[in-house]
Amino acid sequence: MSRSISLPTLAALILCVPSAASALRISPPRTPSQPRPVVVVQGATQPQNTGWATPQPITVGQPAGAAVEAVEIPQSAAVNPVDALARAAVTLRSNGRLLAQGVVLADDGRIVTCLSALDGARQVEVRYANGRTLAAMLVAQDDTFNLALLQPRTGSWPSGVHLAPGTRRGTRATLSMGDPPGITTVGFARRRSFVDGDQLLRDAWQLDPVPTANAVGAGVLNERGQLAAVIVTPRSGSSGNSAPPSAFGAPALVIAAMVQRAGETARPWLGFTARALRAGESIQGVIGSGLRVLDVAAGGPAQTTGLIGGRTPDHVIMADGVALRVEADLASVLERHRPGDSITLRVARGAQLYDVPLVLGRYPALTP
Q1: What is the distance between the alpha carbons of residues 180 and 299, in angstroms, rounded to a whole number?
Q2: What is the SS3 assignment for 325?
Q3: 101, 208, 267, 346: which could form a disulfide with 218 (CB 3.0–4.6 Å)?
């Protein structure tokens, strides 16, 4: 049964995260369709029926985790490489600064780029061919070949390129360079193995001429319009005949292995966007931290659960018992979960707090 408490006491309980739940004897709702309020601010009206519905579980495949040699890349139909890359090439930014090029994978929506070019950023802004921008998170990496895999936070992008099956013959190379990216056929690419520090880079692509810095992270398409490689840079300052050039191509086989290790769905989807409270903001004049729900995706997990955004939005105070002060706190909780998992959100709606179950979903496809 809900307990009325004073405002100062409520503030202390909310800010003392480890002991708040136990002090109030909070237990999970008896049924997900009827979440019960765990705290009522003094003077508030009685709890109202929120209408929260039970989310449906999602069946998720297991990650492959296969070695590079075991990855099989299916053959795809030939397409014009310039047209294909014009749709799939993206640029990546952080705080307005251009970091690198990137390329969208077909039937996946995730983005491959050069890991070191991200300069340590775990979240970047992706700018697509039509000018749309979305935030994306780092979900996988290959340290040997300096590759990164990014997942858009609000969906996937259907216009991508297919990976090229393994081949040892050379090919004309089409890639993107500049900002916005211009598409060009730069020359010839051939297979070669390099030694970068103590790492053997087997079956990399050497391009002639060597790509410039404004092509780092770009996809390299072969004559069939398939992704043969992504432009990366060496991780060490090795020199000699076996050392890699200043930029070279990490092969499709390595990209495929990284994608499979990341799993079919690398990051679960909440179905809402939120921001941290700004200086001077509070929830009901009491709670000084939390995430304000900005918008809720139609048909997503948050809408199914009943969260609301807009002018009088919900505020998410905790996730699985972790206090949420900035957006990164919620991202850290999600890193421990996969689509189909259930998490518990502590939600402030009006003068009440609720413990609300939410089943994480898969990222949907976006419309270009």
Answers
A1: 33
A2: coil
A3: 101
